[in-house]
């Protein structure tokens, strides 16, 4: 069994859903050493999240942003946590809904994503800043 781990600092991105598949692949070239395995990508933040979804049509990512903004609106008077601005508490809720990690099979040295699948950084803050990922791959 081989185990590899790498941190990846992503450049700041605007609020929205961003494909980061190649950022992840480039950060852990040791994937090529695994015939069969697993790759976990974990985000070390509570106001951004990760997901796997459509990688071809950018309108899917726009619709995700629209949906989550409707489902979890800003400036809800019932929110108690608002120290960091009106986008902060909604960002925490959106991150909890989507999750902090994705797990992908590794087959013959590459991520076994489907044809139309990509890894999303889901940036829920207006100015979230740099985001850090921990990528762990293991297998044979």
UniProtKB/TrEMBL annotation:
<dbReference type="InterPro" id="IPR001602">
    <property type="entry name" value="UPF0047_YjbQ-like"/>
</dbReference>
<comment type="similarity">
    <text>Belongs to the UPF0047 family.</text>
</comment>
<dbReference type="InterPro" id="IPR035917">
    <property type="entry name" value="YjbQ-like_sf"/>
</dbReference>
<dbReference type="Pfam" id="PF01894">
    <property type="entry name" value="YjbQ"/>
</dbReference>
<protein>
    <submittedName>
        <fullName>YjbQ family protein</fullName>
    </submittedName>
</protein>
